[in-house]
Design a protein that fits this description.
311 residues; alpha+beta; 14 helices; 7 strands
Length: 311
């Protein structure tokens, strides 16, 4: 079913002459695991070029998918993708990316030219679908590391994401010198070090000698400060939200904060599902109370953590 669904979406894009790179689950399942069924997949992630993004959305919608309303952080200046779903199709969403990490106003976003240069058709039987474009092992490593650290933070990461990195790192297909150079060029050295370090701690991954120390030397101080918030001992919704706000430039911070405090009615319905609908306005103060409680709880944890370290 997954292969059929992926082939159907890729056909829709191909008919409109839109190139797409297949990302994450479908590629990893067919290239890194002994059997595709060993790698759980819940989304079909595809990368298209920014100039064809709107056309790609229309092409996928023409196959029966509905564009989900952006919720919370998922706007173009903070998010790299949109979500599409279809009730009559298998329980898989399509995540259509115009970039890989972050949105237009995100500090750690990078241009996609290098990644497109690392894409090539995958030969069967490893291809997730006939003629599918996939990233090289080195590009996959950088993307998966940045996705784990920047989008979800190490404290919220699932073990399967570390295991993906473990299998990729030990596949023998990664060009480690290129990975280090490109991570430095992107400003992702700290993220790559944290992701690979976390993988090694959890799964005893064999990494090139001295790689983590070299990545620490390469890491700039600015991104390090942001990542210390994302990967510190205190991992709460408020801390994660703070890291997201700090990752944005200029007015995008205020727009994101406004969306957090005053989500649209559709977003409130998605978050809380109020019944009956006329109760919807009451959920704004309930949301503010929940955010305030989490913020005060986070502050208490930070103070306790600081006291323990001082002691």
């Amino acid at each position: 079913l997954l292969a059929q669904e992926l082939a159907d979406v890729l056909d829709a894009l191909d008919e409109t002459d839109i190139a797409a790179i297949v990302l994450k689950g479908p590629v990893l399942a067919t290239t890194l695991y002994p059997h595709p069924g060993l790698r759980p997949i819940s989304d079909l992630d595809l990368l298209v070029t920014e100039d064809r993004f709107e056309q790609a959305i229309s092409a996928v919608q023409a196959r029966g998918y509905t564009l989900e309303e952006a919720a919370g952080w998922t706007e173009r200046d903070v998010s790299p993708e949109v979500h599409l779903s279809a009730d009559e199709k298998p329980a898989l969403n399509v995540e259509l990316h115009w970039t890989l990490i972050g949105g237009a106003s995100t500090r750690y976003r990078v241009e996609m030219d290098w990644f497109w240069g690392q894409a090539a058709p995958q030969s069967p039987p490893a291809a997730p679908a006939p003629g599918a474009l996939t990233l090289s092992a080195t590009a996959q490593l950088l993307y998966l590391a940045a996705h784990l650290v920047y989008k979800h933070s190490a404290g919220q990461a699932r073990l399967i994401w570390f295991y993906d990195l473990h299998r990729l790192a030990e596949s023998g297909a990664v060009d480690w010198a290129l990975a280090r150079r490109q991570a430095a060029a992107f400003g992702w050295s700290a993220a790559l070090r944290l992701a690979l370090g976390g993988t090694q701690i959890r799964l005893h991954t064999a990494l090139p000698e001295g790689l983590l120390a070299a990545l620490e030397t390469d890491a700039p101080e600015g991104p390090e400060r942001l990542l210390r918030i994302q990967t510190g001992r205190v991992q709460t919704r408020s801390m994660h939200g703070l890291a997201r706000l700090l990752s944005l430039r200029g007015s995008a911070r205020w727009r994101a904060l406004g969306k957090t405090l005053f989500p649209s009615p559709a977003q409130l319905r998605r978050f809380y599902g109020p019944r009956p609908d006329w109760l919807l306005p009451a959920f704004y103060p309930l949301r503010w109370l929940a955010l305030a409680r989490d913020a005060f709880g986070t502050l208490a944890q930070v103070l306790r953590s600081g006291a323990r370290e001082a002691g």
